């Protein structure tokens, strides 16, 4: 009788949460590509501890507004249907705050690569929620330092609604005034307005300012609000953050119009060997390694894979502990480029993952400091230079 080959072990499933619809759809698509690249490298290099594959199941939880309000339910349903062990993402802060509630209720670890709201740091999450993108508290501080260093002593602030934009606007205003600057006026922009010229004019009339700090999503109100601000010409410069860090903004307005715009956001450490390895793999896979937050997306997936090696595929508290064990200060370093070597090291004991975005060092809140860069529109795309 013919002997049947043993059935392959089922993959270990992780829910990959994106905002493929809504205000950050462009950035989400790139992040999905980066996470999938990491999973392919893991599986091609022998899989997890027992050879099982890592499977990323995509679930779209939107970004802000009504979609974000449903993110908790969408994430729970996807997790249960897939018999998953953890979450990667979401990309946006509003949806991440909702999914974090699901993660805590399910006892499932979550590593976000794009959610930056300081509110995530304050969650009572039982050490289940982590992120590879730096908090907006760091971004706000870097942007305030940039404004003051350029001599912008008076700044107006405008922002969309929602957790990300509102929280970042408040953090920036606090950091800027603490550094000796003056906020001349602040405005919450009406969602979906046909024309933001009246809002910008009212903000300019509230007090003369050197610059405008604008916090909005490219796929939300960001492009029309930025266009209205630049057309008004009341400020020497416009400052912003990662919500506008989408090449669609450059395509819509043109690099020439954006010459007075600087965005502060996370950036990879391009001088590292890990970045070089990642960049070559990303280009071979057909996506831009310089795209916003893709290095953080790749690193989130790699950390999850290493942690699953340490936990032998188990989820829950064992996986949460393992996430700490693969980002352990002082442990032997591992990084992109040789999954088999990294897996062997993780099986032997704690390791310190040094990734495409730099060395990941999770603090007590699950945050990592990251590298903050100033991004300018150049040659049809946003390009970075390190701020801190």
Strand and helix map with partners:
Layout: E1 12-18, H1 25-44, E2 54-60, H2 65-69, H3 71-82, E3 86-88, H4 93-106, E4 110-112, E5 129-131, H5 136-149, E6 154-159, H6 163-178, E7 182-188, H7 197-205, E8 211-215, H8 218-232, E9 237-240, H9 247-253, E10 261-267, H10 273-285, H11 294-310, H12 316-325, E11 333-334, H13 339-348, E12 352-355, E13 358-359, E14 371-378, E15 381-386
Parallel strand pairs: 1-2, 1-3, 3-4, 4-5, 6-7, 6-8, 8-9, 9-10, 11-12
Antiparallel strand pairs: 10-14, 12-13, 14-15
What does this structure look like?
By secondary structure, the protein is α/β, with parallel strands linked by helices. Helix content is 42%, strand content 19%. It contains 13 helices and 15 strands. Strands 7-6-8-9-10-14-15 form a 7-stranded mixed β-sheet, sandwiched between helices. Helix 11 packs across helix 13. It is elongated, with a radius of gyration of 21 Å. It starts with 11 loop residues before the first strand and ends with a strand.
